[in-house]
Each structure stands twice: as structure tokens, then as C-alpha cells.
Amino acid sequence: MKIVSLLPSATEMVCEIGLSDQLIGVTHECDYPVWVRSLPKVTQTLIPVDASSRDIDELVRERLKTERALYTLDLPLLSKLQPDLIVTQTLCDVCAVAESEVNAAVCTLPGRPTVINLEPTRLADIFNCLSQVGRAAGVESQAKMAIDRLRARVSAVENRTEQNTNPTRVLLLEWIDPPFSSGHWSPELVRLAGGTEVIGQEGQPSRTVHWDEIIAADPEVIVIACCGFDIERTRRDIPILSAYPGFQELPCVRSGRVYLMDGNAYFSRPGPRLVDSLEILAHTLHPTVHPLPVGLPSAEQLSPAELGM
């Protein structure tokens, strides 16, 4: 079976269930496993490479008004690849190729490939999506084994978290300019890791947050995992965060409990590495309870200078 993935998390799912050798096309954002970067890219972005966070936010909001996505298909390449299965999504209206564009493209392709749409909003949905991909590709048993492995890791974190009777009050930021609370699966990860998300709600979309709301929430820990940004790109926006009124007076800032995580690799992608995200977050919140698994990066603690102290 020839498979094309139209989102990075789907690419990781396909590889997780042992279908790497059947993956023939990916998006311009797909970068994990590393070898997929050499595969043909069937999408392109309309976001300028030098766009600021504020510019990206405004572009996204404008696209939402017009129901137009920020990504487009390379239809000639897709036709040349002749996939049997296309994995896409319907969760975000602008952050992947629009469902309508995919459906229109499929009608022009030889053989009319099967299209599956993924729409996970909770951690359990990720496992269901893995099962869905496995079923569509005819490898249900392989998908089940992958799901069992991931569930076992989640259960290990949950079991250790049960030792903690005092959850940490956490604010997980998905964007800085303007501030966005976490949404969908991220507040659930916070809870499983031994925290309580002070603003974001499980299973609900992330949302713009007024800075006064953050001050009033008074989190014990701030975790910054900007959507689609790695740590280096996120760090560029820290001066914007530290300039918000009252930032330095927050107890979590005074105690130095402000951390950066790679949102692009982990929290932004509803795929197998959400379990990695959980393990990294659990270690960040309660390092004596949750050891950091070998091979996973620790969160980066911001220095006093970066915090404007």
C-alpha cells in the first residue's frame, strides 16, 4: 500500500505501527522520524518564513474568517505519486490542508485513494486514530501492539502520579503573542503528570487569554510549548512574555519555575509522541517521582536574566 500523510502527527502514526516502508509522500512540516525529510513534499505553506508570532496569529485569524487553510496541496505531485491511502485531519481549520481541498483532489486522482480523517481531542483519541490508520492499512494487529506499548507508558506515569496528593498548579502556554492557554489533550497531560491546569480545559480548544486572567490564576509553574515552534524559536518571544505587566511578580517567576518545551515536536502533535510529552512534563513537575526516560530531552528552565529578574 502506498501512503501519503498530510500532517506530521499522521506521519508519526504511520511509522509507529510499522508502515514506514509504505510512506511515499509527506508534508513540508514532517520531520520525524528524521528520514522522512527526504520524502516528496506534497504541501506548502502560505506563512512567510520571517513572520512574527503576532503576524502568524493575525494571519490565522484572517484565514479562519474566510475558511481558507494556510497550506496547499501540490496536486501534480500527488497525482504522480498515486497513493492508495491518504491520511489527513479535520481538527484544525487552518493548520493543515483543508478537507474540501483534499476531497476535491481525490476526485481527480487515478484509482480514487482511500482518505481517512483524524480528529483527536483527547489522549484516548490518539490511540483510536492509531487503530483507525492500522485498520485502513490492513495492519490492525501491528496497531494494537503499538497502542499497548504507549498505554503501558501512560499507565506507568499515572501510577507514579497517584503518590502525589498535592497537584501542582500549572499554566501551559501554547502561544505568547498573544497568550493562548493550552487546549484539547494538553490539560489532560498536565493532570496525568501530577498537575492542575489553571486555565486550559480538557478536550476544549486552546483560546486567547487576557494577561490579567493569568495573573489571577497565579500558577505555581509556567510551561511554554508554543504551537509549531521549537525551543529556539520560542525563546525569541520570551522578551515579549517578560514585558507583560506583573510578570516578574508572579511567584512561579520569582522561584524560577518557568520552563520551555519543544511544542513542535511534542505538545502540538496529536500522535505517538504525546506520550513523550507526558513523560517530559511529569519529570518537569515532579522530578523525584518521575524519572526522565532515556533519550528524551528535559524541559529548559529559563534563567533569571531571561525572566527579566
Description:
- By secondary structure, the chain is an alpha/beta fold.
- It folds into two domains: 3-147, Rossmann fold; 166-301, 3-Layer(aba) Sandwich (Rossmann fold).
- The protein contains twelve helices and twelve strands.
- The chain has helices spanning 8-16, 53-66, 75-81, 99-108, 123-137, 140-161, 186-192, 211-217, 231-235, 238-242, 251-254, 274-285, and strands at 3-5, 23-25, 43-45, 71-73, 85-89, 114-118, 168-175, 180-181, 195-197, 221-224, 258-260, 300-301.
- The strands form three sheets. Strands 7, 8, 9, 10, 11 and 12 form a six-stranded mixed beta sheet that branches. Strands 2-1-5-6 form a four-stranded parallel beta sheet, with helices on both faces.
- Strand 7 and strand 8 (180-181) form a beta hairpin.
- Helix 5 packs antiparallel against helix 6 (140-161).
- The longest helix is centred in the middle third of the chain and has 22 residues, at 140-161.
- The chain is globular and about 60 Å long.
